[in-house]
Amino acid sequence: MSPRVRLSELDTLGGVETEALVGRPPNGPLSAPGPTTPIGYRGTPLQRFCVRVLNYVTNYIVAHVPSFTLRHLWYRRVLGIGLGRDAGVYMGAYVWFFGPGQIRRDGVWIGRNTRINRNCTLDARSGLTIGDNVSISPEVMILAGSHNVNDKRFVQVPGPIAIEDHVWIGARATILPGVTLGRGSVIAAGSVVTKDVPPLTIVAGVPARPVGTRDPGGAQYTLDEPLPLFE
Ligand SMILES: CC(C)(COP(=O)(O)OP(=O)(O)OC[C@H]1O[C@@H](n2cnc3c(N)ncnc32)[C@H](O)[C@@H]1OP(=O)(O)O)[C@@H](O)C(=O)NCCC(=O)NCCS
User: Fold this and answer.
1) 188 alpha carbon to ligand 1 midpoint, in Å?
2) Which of 3, 20, 37, 186 places its Cα 20 to 30 Å from the Cα of 14?
3) In the predicted model, what is the mean pLDDT of residues 9-32?
4) φ, ψ for residue 191 (rounded to 5)?
5) Residue 83: phi, psi to the nearest 5?
6) Superfamily of domain 19-29+38-219
7) Ligand 1: does its nearest atom lie under 6 Å from the Cβ of 186?
8) Atom 43 (ligand 1) nearest CA
């Protein structure tokens, strides 16, 4: 995936999402930089109300509109998510956010030809970078925030996530905050990933542990099949 291509694509979206690319050297591995201070809803009661309404419309109405074009338009223009060419976010996605301003600040990027299958949770609370040709199976949970269990106020803490090119995440896997999934790695169905996964490594189980490696030649495809109707 070329950051240069992405930057030019993002410029057409108003340029605000370029922060999503900060910290990623050209042709280098994704990094998951992001805020280290507690996260949460901020603003006046009116602003918080508006964010809740936006949340409802995004996740309970727009996410169920049977058109990739309309959903993607909303994700790009209203939320400020960067979506690469021919990426597809299927129906039923739950985007977890504190408001479009926070998404733009911390950065959310979904790369070219990447497929996010039905009913996935995309946590955009502290930064989420997904590379090109990534395949995310149904009902995967990507969690980019947690709580400090020893804090008196139980504050929420950020944990930005980076998923590099050609990663495959099996159905119902959970990716915990702060994790980077290396290029071409495979996450078995139902796994819970608690630590970074090296490139081309297959992990499985709870917590996920290496169970194999992937042939480097197997992680060079382009996910360019047309997006299906009504999904
Ligand atoms: C990751 C996956 C591709 C691994 O397949 P594989 O390379 O053929 O691996 P194997 O079946 O040889 O399993 C290797 C080991 O990992 C274990 N394992 C495989 N998948 C596992 C899973 N989901 N959870 C826990 N352990 C798993 C196996 O039990 C085996 O352990 P053992 O050596 O102790 O017997 C496959 O198990 C998987 O999860 N596919 C995802 C399916 C899916 O989500 N489909 C929807 C989208 S199309």
Assistant:
1) 5
2) 37
3) 34
4) -75, 155
5) -120, 120
6) Hexapeptide repeat proteins (2.160.10.10)
7) yes
8) 170
> Residue 191's pLDDT is what?
98
Atom number in ligand 1 closest to CA 137:
47
From atom 15 of ligand 1, which residue's Cα is the shortest distance away?
A: 211
Quick check: CB of 167 below 6 Å from ligand 1? no
pLDDT over threshold 80, residue 155: yes
Cβ within 8 Å of residue 45, ≥6 positions away: none
**Dihedral angle sign, alpha carbons of residues 48, 52, 58, 63:** positive
Q: Cβ(65) to ligand 1 under 6 A?
A: no
Burial 16-40 (b: 16+ CB within 10 A, else e): bbbbbbebbeeeeebebbbbeeebe
Angle made by CA atoms 91, 92, 98, in degrees to the nearest 5: 120
Q: What is the pTM of this model?
A: 0.87
The closest residue, in CA terms, to atom 1 on ligand 1 is: 188
From 75, 165, 161, select the one nearest 115 (Cα to Cα): 165
Known catalytic residue at 166: no
Helix (H) or strand (E) holding 106: helix 100-106
Question: Rounded to whole angstroms, how far apart are CA atoms 148 and 150?
Answer: 5
Q: How confident is the model at residue 36 (pLDDT cuts 50, 70, 90)?
A: low
Coil vs helix vs strand at 57: helix
Owner of token pair 């419309």: 57
